[in-house]
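Narrative progress, year one. The postdoctoral researcher (J.K.) led the effort to move from monomer predictions toward full complexes, under supervision of the PI. The following entry was the first complex the group processed end to end, covering 1503 residues in total.
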Amino acid sequence: MTFTLLAVRALRGPNIWSRLTVLEAVLEQQGKYLSKQSLTPYLDIKNSAGLSLSSCIAEHSDWDLFASLVIFFQQCAEMSVSFWQVRATSVDNVHKVIVAYNEEEVARRALEIAIDFFAALCADQNYPLAEQLTALRDMGRKERLGPSTQAIVDAVRARNIPVMRLNEHNLLQCGYGSRQAKIQAAETDRTSIVAENIAQHKELSKNLFRAVGVPTPRGCSVKSVEEAWQFACQVKAPIVIKPESGHQGKGVAVNLQTLEQIQAGFEAAAKLGPVMVETLIPGEDYRLLIVGNRLVAAARREPPSVIGDGKKTIAELVAEINENPLRGEDHATVLSKLILDDIAVGVLAQQGLTVDTVLAAKQKVVIRANANLSTGGSAIDVTDSVHPEVAARAIDAAAVVGLNIAGIDVIAEDISRPLEEQNGGIVEVNAAPGLRMHLAPTAGAAQPVGEAIADLLFAPHEDGRIPIFAVTGTNGKTTTVRLIAHILRAAGFYTGITCTEGVYANDDCIDSGDCSGPKSARLLLKNSCIDAAVLEVARGGILREGLGFDFCQVAVVTNLGAGDHLGIQGIETLDDLARVKQTIVSAVLPQGAAVLNAADPYVAAMHAVCPAEIIYFACDDSTPCLQAHLAKGGRGVFVAHGDVVFSQGDKIVARIPLRNIPLTHQGKVKFQVENVCAASAAIWAFGLNFSLLAQGLLNFKGDNADAPGRFNVIYSKEAFIILDYGHNVSALESIIESLPQFPHKRRSVVYSAAGDRRDSDIVAQGLLLGNAFDQVIIYEDVRIMRGRPEGEIIQKLKQGIEQGERVQQMHTFYSEEEAAIYALGHVQAQDLLLLQVDDVLGISQLVQGLLEKEAL
Amino acid sequence: MDIRDIRVLHGLNMWTYRSALEAIVDLGALKDAASNELPGFNARLMAWLPSLVEHRCSIGERGGFCQRLTRGTYQAHILEHVCLELQSLLGYPIGFGRARETDEEGVYKVIVGFQDEQVAIACLYRAKELLQAAVEDFPYDIQAVLEELKEYARQVGLTDSERALIAAAKQRNIPCGRVEHSHLLYFGQGKKQKHSWCALTDDTGSIAYNIVDNRELLPQLLRSAGLPVPEGHLLSDRGEAWSDAENLGLPVVIKRRYAAYAQGAQLNLCTQAAVEHAYDLAKDDGYSLIIEQFVSGSTYHLLMIHGQLVAASCENSSGITHVKSLVHPENIHYAALAAKIVGLKIAHIVMVAEDIQKSLRKQQGKIVAMNAELNLLYWQDAGSDQNLAATALMADFFPEAQDNPGRIPIFSVSGLKGQNLAARLLHHIFLQQKQDVGLACQQGIWLKQRLINPARSDQAKAAMQLLGNPWIDCAILENSWQGIQAMGLGFERCAYAVITDVAALDLPEDPDQQEYIFKNIRSVVDGVKTSGVAILPAEDLLTPALAKLCGGQVCYFSLTGEQPVLQAHAAAQGANVYLKGHFIILAQGQEKVAALSVEILSQLDEHAQKSLLAAVSAAWLSGSHAEGIAQALNSFRDWFVQEPQSL
């Protein structure tokens, strides 16, 4: 059988399937049942852990086999993934295949390979699977982080600190907002550029070493043979002559003692640029890794060499070594291939050898002078043998240069003895040192260098996290977000919010429009100014891409009510919707809390997925779920005797009178009371003190400035005008319920419904309007039609309104603005006008303008 | 005329507080050639270097030196002034110069201050050449020479920004300089040190540095924080250049993806030809390119330090105008955010706007670039000759309004014989008190208790090495008079001058030689800060003269409390330290503050006892407790280490 890909999306954060990043592919199955026989030629293909493809055959259905192969292919590309799932959909032969990934592009390619592979099997054609998987592995090596960076990332993640990639290079952000640290390879954002510049100037570095008593070979730059000779006479010891900016051992002459030797050495080096001389330090080449002020690893480095067996030539021996799959072409793997280039040929020539020389058994031949890993050198871990005095000098060398992470090159006969005793010395300090030799030494134990760097970035008590408040629900999200943010700001947090109106950092508008998705959340969490983030999380984003954060401190679910957007993206029922929205509840940090509406059964049930404490809230203190929770000693927020009450078990911790919370209109507007309870519970969960909370609630007027389009009540010329964004059955019910609190004789409403809702929902909204208002003004606007033909929304609304018992008059407009202008122009004393605003900022401004002109 | 030898005197020396070259110049045949006796000499000299008219010389007014020329002055003196003038023309204004006869006829010492050793030496040789040409009436292409010197200074000397930093440091009397002819500049001593490299500071992170030079990533980061930046993106293909430009809206800018501000950017491109030409030019260098909207308006340079706007200027055709007080608060807020977003504590932010007094938002203004590496010329104040940015950076490095910003206490220990023991004793006392102390003495250099350099090096270098050590909070320097003469002291000011012995007995008989020794030793006392103390042996021959030179307090010590100098000093509420029986008495005015018992006292000769008293005085006056001093002395074991001969 074959699979056709209908849709695929990458869920880049915690999602309804998993906390892992996954690809969600919708596939259609066609054709005959696949014979397992046809897989036979491919069964021996192995993944990077050595497991063969035959291990996938055990899967029961073709769907399972398909999914497990996509995972297996990724494993062949050295990705450590294992999670997969297959889900049926409402269409018989269409399933969703969910597979975890590390590198999105690799997973997408693995999916394509699987589809092609099955197509070939069905057509009885050969498929070049092995070649494709090799290409996939190479793609993976290119896409993923290098081993040094990956080790740091793994260690940071092991401390439960999130890591984000900032560009296609190795620039990474660890942590969120103002608590973040950036790293790039083994460089942190606290690595000083001045220190790096010093490290690049070898002469200057050595001068600084001397100033703090770090032994280093004497040396200087020389302009002539005479100067070099003079130096040799001064030091009365063999010297080294080398080009100042040489590398890979080019032009280096060692152990020079006579004038003739020095002359020859100088002339050779001078061909390559300015020349420097140094006293010769005999000994082996060591690399010490200093992180902070600690020695975390040390390795003895050996130049690449081959050992003969009496039969093979040098070229053959090299080829044999290079067959080791751990040896890659560059820095992407833990070991690098040996290279037989001109330099190697030159080194061999100096020993009287060529690549075709057959070496005697056990004859060891060095094929390169330098021990760099990237040219095939090897490294033997010696961390435990380093003498404390040697470690102390290496730490001094890093410190005097000013590097927080440094690779120190030491030459010594014996690293377990002080340098001073054996004429050893530190020759160089390197910024952004490679970690490969410590992570995967050729011999000896690997060292936890990633962990050491993670600990340098974040002190033991730090987690790199700013408080994140995630808010979801059918109604009240934006008001709750704004209220929480308002209180945090008053408490001194530089607070970022994402909501349906945009992204804000304190007063700065970063983006406008509907920003309740994961992209906006990620944008905010990258911002290094932000001390706290309050994120509105809409269902669409969760389904499309998963969450934009890994964990939150507090998750708030305001309500599900009758739901909204049902029938879209495969979310048919309230159960489906709850499963989507509870994603934020399952993302609460263990030390955080979920704030749940006790009165909404779907929301209350989300406690089952919460890995942390629950705080329930409810307007009515008799709500059974709340009572049960309190009885078990849990925390709850509810209303009693005109106060918002904070209770832990049967103990009342604090009370804030509703009359001191203007948003609730003395407690008269029930849904705002609920929003206040939700926001207050979130703040309580976070641990801010009650006086700051009370102050914040007192200052939040809920007007156009605090929460535009969120039940803004205006009293003008003896009439009430209420602006609200509500656009679903639940919201409308809540609002209508609160209207008697604002004395009036005649009620009008301006309203429309969004075209992407089910017909039945639109009719239901119409019915509510018809039952609750004397005058109903409905409109249609291109912005909200969402694919419906012109006039259809109005028609469906009318269908409901006409069944209403209260409605007297009905007007129709084809522009939100015109409808609003008409309604506002006909407001009379003792009226109440509910103005449903879709273009929140536009209509708010319109009303504001009229107010200023005193036309209202 | 021949320059026989040049000594580089670092820091305080017998001539001046600051570093200077001391050249031994043999005038040879010119030894009697006074300026007024050489026909046309003065005219030629003044034609080549008309700005010599500014030299006030000993006359003390503009044109002073010209008057000396007219009246007739000797070539060594002229050499001094010409060398100073050449340095000045290169941008190194130096105030100090001297010319002095030596014992040898026709041989002079010419002393000229310097900021950059290598540049000053080059100027000295050129000055000699110029004088010879003037004397012998040879043609001399002064412009070519200046150009060549300028080029040399560009190669080996400091950049304008670095010089501005040095000037700002000097203005606040902060010790500063170059480390080993490199672009690493130090400000302050020991633990109080800060560094810069090409106007980057210790605090600048390399990741932040790389981010601001990445013109693809920087605007992305700034935009993600809601800051106004021009729209732009990577430009991959020549064929797309023009359509990209039209999409962005004309005019556009094409620039390199990785580059510092103002490097390789081509602005205001309006036509297809211009855009494609710009593409070709930039692509020729093999760089990947960015195309971006061009922002019209004036260019403003804001310098932010730790979220504060410290300087702002507007760059226009007439030069630079300072606009710090005009910048709209919202623009300051944007600049502070931008710096924080990329992680720079010190950042140069370039804004283009019609008017900086209005918010960028209100006028399509943008942040077009940022810099970590500062070009301080943007904030040079032509009027006051101050660099506002450099001044602000120094204020950031050394914020307190203290007397001695950036300085750690220096104990300069000198004398004829006893200075070595006193220095080592003092070191031992401080070590016992867990101070992070450094010692430079004849036996080598100690960092805390570790001997880091056993070799005997010259004392000015040792002092500089020690003061450059980032881990010490006080320094003890043994300074023999010979060492001072040879290399200077290596510092300009000290908190404590500790003179162990300057008695007649140990001085040579020759009065000239005596004078010479005095001149060198006095520089230690000259260096005492007003808040500092000179510790002097009460009964020694040179003490009264030294006491007069001290700008701070004096403390006397003596083997006997009966000494009249001591008694007079006590009467004037001064501090004295003296022996009484087996006790060392510490006295402030008439009050005996403490009596220390030191077991070994009776076994020491008078010289060693004096060293001991000097060390005790210095430790006590710098705040050590008497008890701790006594304990330390009783645990000192090296009383009889052989001292190398001092005289």
